Amino acid sequence: MNIQGENKSRNNLIGLLPLWIVMGVFMIGPLIVMAFVSIMESNSYGGIHLKFDLSGYRQILFDTNLFDEMEFNPAYLIIIGRSFLLAVAATIISLIIGFPVAYYISRQKDSVKNILIFLVTIPFWTNLLIRTFAWIIILGKDGVIENSFGFIGIIGDDDSLNLMYTNTAILIGLVYSYIPLMVLPIYSSMEKLDVRLIEAASDLYSTRINLIFKIILPLTLPGIIGGSILVFVPCLGAFIAPDLLGGGKKLLLGSLIQFQFAYARNWPFGAAIAMVLLALIVTILYLNARINRRHEQNA
Amino acid sequence: MLNLMFKRKKFSKVWDFPGFLTWTFFFFGFLYIPIVILVIYSFNSSKFAMIWTGFSFRWYEKLLTNDDMQQAALNSLYVAFVAAPCATAIATLTALVVVRGGSFKSKEFSNGLVTLPLMVPEIVTAVATLIFFAFIGINLGLINVMIAHTVFCIPFAYMPIKASLEAMDPTLEVAARDLYSDRNSTFRYITLPLLMPGILSGFMLAFVISIDDFIITLMVAGGGSTTLPVYIYSMIKMGVTPEVNAISTLMLAFSIILVTGYWVFSKKS
After folding, report:
1. Which of A87, B145, B249, B253 is the most exposed place for a label (fewest CB within 10 A)?
2. Distance of CA B43 to the CA centre of its chain
3. Which residues of chain A have pLDDT under 70?
4. What is the pLDDT of residue B62?
């Protein structure tokens, strides 16, 4: 028995080794190097000087003015704040749209249910870049919306609604990108919902509104929280929607980071913002894990 | 039975909410109308992407002569055909140990490690990998992209494999062992064949994720190793041309056909 036990732990080790090596070297390794780069001095050609320097982080809050003095500069804080607000808004809108959909799907018979859930997951499998690009055709100048409005005669030929490059455009793009991630977890908690509870409440003269807010919503809360996190996290670091629909003027965290590496060539600053984003995400995931644990303890 | 059905019907009135059907209808409209519009406009004969003038295959014909695009498409396939099998192999080994390895110290850790690429925002993974490759001086063109994709695809391959291992009936393996099959042949003739659908779906997920990946590739790929999504991105950035619609439609069709085929197949079996 002992020999077999040793064999097993050896086999376990061999089986896990590829994962540890690959993830350790090419996932954790890069994150450590990035953390290191964020506290180095920048090299104007891209890359870094090997010299400890916190200016990457300082730059998030302060600018150096002509007299070499530090001046508070809220520009990047505004970008962080806007990313946060847009991610929150996208999450709430996804929830409002997704909740009834998840409920409706969960109450269908199995064959219909399978097809509908498959239809929700298809966008997931298709290219996000292309799906966001489709919105340029819809929202853009002389796009589908402007054309049809012009056709009815609401706007003139040379007028533009200026739908693109706005926070609204980004918001539409974010909701469109990640809403399947809201519907699926809520749907799976709806599946576990005991319908007899709805029935009992209804028998006891609960109104329909109360059925939703006092019965269904609390019982599917784990799915709602899970879905919200799944939408919020990628929204906070989104790059494609702000880049394509927000243009250069409406930077968000994701596009700001990309900009530092692709154009500005300020690696320590880009790495510092990436670290801030990572810290925000880790905090949210940690809080979520704590809430979950408390839930489990109470249950 | 009849009684049960009758009851169900009666109950369904209690838990049906008026308006939810319409709401769901609009939701699917929201999800699919942009895709449909994109496809329709790819058959537009006008030179301006946004103005409809008539039906034509002209932009698809133009794709046939676009060598850069074809090279990018080939690159995408090369990367996916290396990254997806590597990711699937690593994911399979990990799933076997995590599900079947009993309880051991690093189990939670390994399980968390697999899902790390899903937790870290993609843009952060992308720039971290870019810095890492520049820092240690690995500059192997497409191979850099393949490595980055392998890492990113592991969790996607892992999930279906782990799920099908957990759903597998362990008594079959016990029966084989009872009938004097040794460890290796039990694995070879019982576990592996039963696990094959899970491995295949893991592979397919990884493959599609790799083909579609854009952000990581954008940051990691050097000049000569453009993949299709990165090429499409540069076309969009240069100005929207109907050619983008045509290639996008082909990519969408590729993904949707692959996934639908798989879905139908898995429903039947």
Report:
1. B253
2. 27
3. 1-6, 46, 156-160, 299
4. 86
Q: What is the pTM of this model?
A: 0.88
Q: What is the per-residue burial (b if ≥16 Cβ within 10 Å, else e) of A225-249?
A: bbbbbbbbbbbbbbbbbbbbbbeee
CATH number, domain containing residue A279? 1.10.3720.10
Q: How many domains does chain B have?
A: 2
Decide if B3 is inside a domain: no
Confirm whether A141 is domain-assigned.
yes
Domain span at residue B98 reads 66-268
Binned at pLDDT 50, 70 and 90, residue B145 comes out as very high
**Contact residues on chain A for B19, CB-CB shorter than 8 A:** 100
Dihedrals phi, psi of B28, to nearest 5 degrees: -70, -30
B223 & B256 share domain: yes
**Domain-located, residue A60:** no
Predicted pLDDT at B155: 94
What is the residue-averaged pLDDT of chain B? 86
Q: Is A274 in contact with B123 (Cβ distance < 8 A)?
A: yes
Residue B10 or residue A272, greater confidence = A272
Which residues 9-28 of chain B have a CB within 8 Å of chain A?
Answer: 11-12, 14-17, 19-21, 23-24, 27-28
Tell me whether residues B35 and A131 touch, CB distance under 8 A.
Answer: yes
B149 and B262 together in one domain: yes
Q: Which of B147, B116, B150 is nearest to B133 (CA)?
A: B147
Q: Is B101's Cβ below 8 Å from some Cβ in A?
A: yes
Note the pLDDT of residue A72.
Answer: 84
Q: What percent of chain B has pLDDT over 90?
A: 42
* Distance to chain A for B15, nearest Cα, Å: 7
CATH code for the domain of B113:
1.10.3720.10
Residue A181 included in any domain: yes
Residue A213 has what DSSP assignment? I
In a domain, B150, yes or no: yes
> How near does any CA of chain A get to the CA of B37, in Å?
7
Packing angle between helix B192-212 and helix B67-100, nearest 10 degrees?
A: 140
Question: Is B207 found in the same domain as B126?
Answer: yes
